[in-house]
Specification:
mainly alpha
């Protein structure tokens, strides 16, 4: 079976379009990663000061926390004993930095702060069940709810 000139041109133009797409995609991904990494540079510098197990690229320490909830908890306690020098341990789960605090004074400092009230992105999953109450809200709404409930303690 022989190719006609039209089939040959169509095949070569498809290949050229695909190769052009990849030639544009790869530098775009590299530039996006460089921008993403630079925008998180301050967090990486601060994370270097906290002790914790070294993570793998892209997945961090996620492979160490597989299994059931009992296994994950035991592994977390083991890591906290191994690396707990300042009352805190860092872990990377993918690109997300998790810091576990073990000193009650540090926990009290964060929980009593009126500045550190932004919630993690994971809280959005609780919104259908909990609404915009004290646990989920941030900013002015959190402050007003906090003022209402503070006298009860």
């Amino acid at each position: 079976m022989s190719y006609t000139a039209a089939e040959s041109v169509a095949a070569s133009s498809t290949w050229a379009a695909t190769s052009m797409f990849y030639m544009l995609l790869v530098p775009a991904l590299i530039l996006w990663y460089a921008y993403w990494r630079m925008s998180r540079r301050h967090m990486y510098e601060l994370a270097e000061k906290i002790s914790g197990p070294p993570g793998l690229p892209l997945i961090g320490n996620a492979l160490e926390f597989t299994g059931g909830s009992d296994d994950i908890f035991k592994n977390l306690v083991t890591k906290s004993v191994d690396y707990d020098k300042e009352g805190m341990v860092k872990l990377w789960i993918g690109p997300r930095l998790l810091v576990f605090l073990y000193d009650p004074r540090d926990v009290e400092l964060i929980l009593s702060s009126h500045v550190l009230i932004d919630k993690a992105d994971e809280y959005r999953f609780f919104k259908p069940w909990l609404g915009n109450g004290l646990l989920i809200s941030t900013g002015q709404k959190w402050r007003s709810h906090r003022k209402l409930i503070a006298p009860t303690f």
